[in-house]
Amino acid sequence: MPRSAPPARPAPLALLLAGILTAGVLTGCDGGVHGTPGGSGLRDPYFPKMGNGGYDVTHYALDLAYAPDTGRLSGTATLTARATQDLTAFDLDLDGLDVEKVTVDGAGARWNRAGHELTVRPHDDLDEGRVFRVTVRYSGTPRTITDPDGSEEGWLPTDDGAVALGEPTGSMAWFPGNHHPSDKASYDLTITVPEGLEAVSNGELTAQRTADGRTTSAWHTAEPMASYLATLAIGDYDIQRSTTSSGLPLYTAVDPAEAAASRTVLARIPEVLAWEEKTFGPYPFSSAGAIVDREGDAGYALETQNRPFFPGAPDTATLVHELAHQWYGDSVSPRTWRDMWLNEGFATYGEWLWEEEHGGDSAQQTFDEVYAHGEDDDVWSFPPAEPSSAAHISDSPVYVRGAMVLHRIRQTVGDAAFAGLLRGWAAAHRHGTADTADFTAYVEKSAPDKDFGPIWDDWLYGDGKPAEPGS
Ligand code: TRP
Ligand code: ZN
């Protein structure tokens, strides 16, 4: 493992000294050991080592270059963060790649790597509340990460470039960061690729220039983004830019092989967004669109912010689902990976509502059809708010039974109040994070005369198939 300097973790002697100092044996000394290292994980119930303690990132500036012929990524990540405790050291999450240099506020910092923890020991301690800048210069061949459920994420090479997908842990394969959804930040991403290729990310394209056979594109994401929603798609794409009738800029990037199959469905983006704004409230971001590549390693769609990713031309239901995530998941993000059903239950219910209002089955019919599934059906295998393990956070209870929870709430409060609740929840945590307890409290407060206890007990937290509603 390459290393520029001694380990950042305090050596036993330093620990001993720190102990002596805090014990007050030596006083009046500002030797800079009053802080402690930030934690190496946020103790997420499913991904305990993801994210880090001791600081909050407010901005990522990623300045990257990619060479598809060699598969090599190089660049500098500059994070602006605020210390939430006195820090002697802090961690970033980075999986693979070679770190070449780390600075904190311009001064060279010592650093060390262990697994996906990159521990940075700044030259000077950082006081609680201090806003600091850490830069990491790095390069290498980014890796594809296999999720606990066996799906592939991180950096996915394609036949003409690569796509970066980050749910739940893949973003650490291509940039160092505080990779947990509870720490959202704005982004500026600058990406240089060989001339003739496109490089598409989140937010808006603010500059593009070609020189010496290389094209550099600058993408700006102003609204807070969880790092798992960051994307980068490099390759040959048909680019379409337009503006909706309400003035929202759209940018779609489609693999030429998928262009014909995608045209009709992507032309519905303005219509889907207009319906979702009516149903969920104002669109939370300053641009929208889609990225469609060829069926690659991913094989799944992802609600990458502003611009969901599709592994081939999507059907309308999938488009509705990924765009619904812009409200539920991207704007209102899960506080931990246990809260996934707040993403997937809402996006799935969005599909049900779309069906209901576009000549298909009513949500009640869809609910009834799922409810008819036998007791050993997968949909009852665990409660949506408590997935059985990290390997199951994208299983059907999270999606379908999560949507059923919302339908049970709708049955309890009525259509009009439920419509208000969908919009109200998106508004209450717009651009923030929320957990299941926030949600149940929100619902209870919005309808204080109703008893939601049985819904929470049986549908949200209960094991097995819930008893027939109303029986
Ligand atoms: N969130 C994606 C969707 O339903 C699906 C997905 C992709 C996913 N990768 C995942 C869910 C990893 C959980 C974990 O739109
Ligand atoms: Zn989803």
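^ zinc ion complex. The first strand starts at residue 36 and ends at 37. DSSP finds ten helices and 23 strands in the chain.
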